[in-house]
Amino acid sequence: MPNVKESHERNFHFCTAPEFEDWMAMQLLDQFVRVMRVHVSGDFFSVEYVRRWLRIVKRSPRQQFFAYTRSWRVEEMIPELIELAAEPNFQMWWSLDRETGPAPLIRGIRQAYMAIDDVDASLAPDDCDLVFRDQPATRMKRANGVLVCPTENGVKTKAKITCSHCGICWNKKATNWETSLLPYYDMTGVEIVAPAA
Questions:
Q1: Which residues have C-beta within 8 Å of that of residue 111, sequence separation ≥ 6?
Q2: C-alpha 162: how far from its chain's center?
Q3: What is the overall mean pLDDT for the chain?
Q4: CB-CB contact of 46 with 75 (8 Å)
Q5: What percent of the chain stands above pLDDT 70?
Q6: I need a surface site. Which of 9, 92, 93, 143 has the fewest CB within 10 A?
Q7: Cβ atoms of 103 and 86 closer than 8 Å
Q8: Half-sphere exposure of 92 toward its Cβ, with a 13 Å CA cutoff?
């Protein structure tokens, strides 16, 4: 689709422009943004680009930021990604799958396994923190002992679980988030169906 490609190219060029940082910081304030996911599509592509986000995050202490990245595979970017992750209002996630191999274990940086389907989810490393499934076929609260994203696990609850209520992706304090959900979403007695082997 030409329009999508043009939009991505325009965004790429703008994020390297001198006015990008000021514009982004102002948009966060003007739009009353509370939580921002950096890159719904795309990734950190250079050391300088990570530094730009570090400056934006430091200028925006009232906003919470989070990002999933596979740029941990680029060795020269790791120090800046770690520095960005250390900001109190930023939650960094290493994104991995069966093709990326294991990500480095860094204190304060969580790991998310991106599974294609339920069988792939069962291959999630047991030291990762969260599993997402692209093509879920069953309800699954855990995959290989690792929590499946609550908004995507297929488990029916009395109230709809939303990203804003869950907060695991963006809230550094949500370390034991499964128990913190219980007052809102009673998970006791919910039947979990494991995938067929």
A1: 93, 94, 95, 96, 103, 105, 125, 127, 128, 129, 130
A2: 14
A3: 83
A4: no
A5: 86
A6: 9
A7: no
A8: 29
* Token code pair at residue 2: 């030409």
Is residue 38 over pLDDT 90? yes
Query: Quick one: 2 exposed, middle or buried, by C-beta within 10 A (0-12, 13-18, 19+)?
Result: exposed
Q: Are 102 and 96 in contact (CB under 8 A)?
A: yes
Nearest to 177 by CA among 153, 147, 155: 147
With a CB cutoff of 8 Å and minimum separation 6, the contacts of 191 are 139
Name the token pair of 155.
Answer: 């488990």
Pull the structure tokens for residue 91: 């939650």
Average pLDDT over residues 45-57: 97
